[in-house]
């Protein structure tokens, strides 16, 4: 490039000096854009909100006892690709993992919201991705040293098998019959149940959910879709065992993302 002497050279210097200022203004402008700060999940049945201690619907004579799941690996997609959404550490979140759900015997002990510490601007997000389950290292951590949401015996099987990634317990309102869907890793090998496996389990059974982004940040977990082609009775309980015939269907319904969707208005 040929610079002009005197005034021309001064103008180039002035432009160079303006570059850091322009970059700083762009950063400030971008930081003022609202970012994804929370995700809220609502348990529903055919988009109708599920209420504890009440029959789920007049046609579906079951009521919720408890529903919990671990959410990890939350990511958002923008035109730049997928990027990690970092979670806030709080009572229900630890080491970028959240525990969501509730036990109906204790209405105060409930959490249906993910608090996000760092994410992308709302208007740039097109998709969400998260995992129901835990990474191998967290799933088989020492129960004696577990902290926060991992120090939860309600969600723990054994050191060998790890945690229940998802726990859903129902009770029939007329017969008091119980039904359960407990999802977790199986085929985990170690010298004994009180020792962690050295290698990945044969069936990790983690489920990755990909969804189009809804800028309300509210997602429905629809049990009617989860139960598709499964008639609830004692024989269709699933405790993540490959020999239980209902397990593949329930896991497939969960994995195909049909169980999660945008919450419709008026629900």
Overall number of domains = 2
Alpha plus pi helix count: 4
The string of secondary-structure elements, in order, is: HEEEEEEEEEEHEEEEEHHE
Major sheet attributes: 10 strands, antiparallel
Query: Average pLDDT, to the nearest integer?
Result: 86
Contiguous uncertain segments of 5+ residues: 1-15, 20-31
| Overall helicity | 10-25%
3D shape: globular
First and last CA, distance: 64 Å
Quantity of strands, as a count? 16
User: Which secondary-structure class do the elements indicate?
Assistant: alpha+beta
Radius of gyration: 24 Å
Strand content: 35-45%
Q: What do you see in this structure?
A:
This protein has helices at 7-31, 136-139, 223-226, 246-255, and strands spanning 38-45, 48-49, 62-78, 81-84, 86-87, 93-94, 97-103, 106-111, 113-118, 127-132, 156-158, 162-172, 178-184, 207-212, 218-222, 260-262. The protein has 267 residues and is an alpha+beta fold. The protein has two domains: 1-32; 35-262, no CATH class. The strands form two sheets. Strands 3, 4, 6, 7, 8, 10, 11, 12, 13 and 14 form a ten-stranded antiparallel sheet that branches. The protein is globular and about 55 Å long. The termini are far apart. Mean pLDDT is 86; it is low at 1-15 and 20-31.
Keywords:
ten-stranded antiparallel beta sheet, six-stranded mixed beta sheet, globular, alpha+beta, 4 helices, 36% strand, disordered N terminus, 267 residues
Quick structural gist:
The protein is an alpha+beta fold and 267 residues long.
């Amino acid at each position: 490039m040929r610079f002009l002497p005197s005034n021309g050279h001064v103008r180039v210097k002035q432009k160079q000096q303006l570059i850091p200022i322009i970059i700083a203004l762009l950063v400030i402008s971008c930081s003022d854009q609202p970012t994804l700060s929370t995700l809220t999940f609502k348990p529903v049945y055919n988009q109708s909100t599920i209420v504890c201690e009440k029959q789920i619907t007049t046609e579906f004579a079951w009521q919720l006892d408890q529903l919990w799941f671990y959410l990890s690996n939350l990511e958002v997609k923008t035109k730049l690709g997928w990027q990690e959404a970092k979670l806030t550490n709080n009572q229900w979140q630890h080491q970028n993992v959240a525990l969501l759900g509730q036990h109906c015997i204790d209405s105060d002990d409930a959490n249906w919201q993910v608090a996000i510490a760092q994410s992308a601007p709302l208007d740039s997000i097109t998709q969400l991705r998260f995992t129901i389950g835990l990474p191998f290292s967290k799933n088989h951590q020492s129960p004696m040293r577990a902290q926060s949401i991992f120090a939860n015996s309600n969600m723990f099987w054994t050191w060998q098998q790890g945690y229940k990634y998802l726990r859903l317990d129902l009770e029939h309102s007329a017969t008091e019959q119980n039904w359960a869907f407990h999802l977790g890793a199986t085929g985990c090998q170690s010298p004994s149940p009180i020792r962690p496996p050295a290698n990945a389990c044969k069936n990790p059974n983690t489920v990755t959910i990909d969804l189009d982004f809804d800028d309300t940040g509210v997602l429905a977990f629809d049990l009617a879709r989860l139960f598709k082609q499964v008639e609830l009775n004692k024989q269709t309980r699933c405790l993540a065992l490959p020999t239980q015939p209902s397990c593949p269907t329930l896991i497939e319904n969960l994995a195909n993302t049909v169980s999660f969707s945008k919450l419709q208005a008026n629900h």
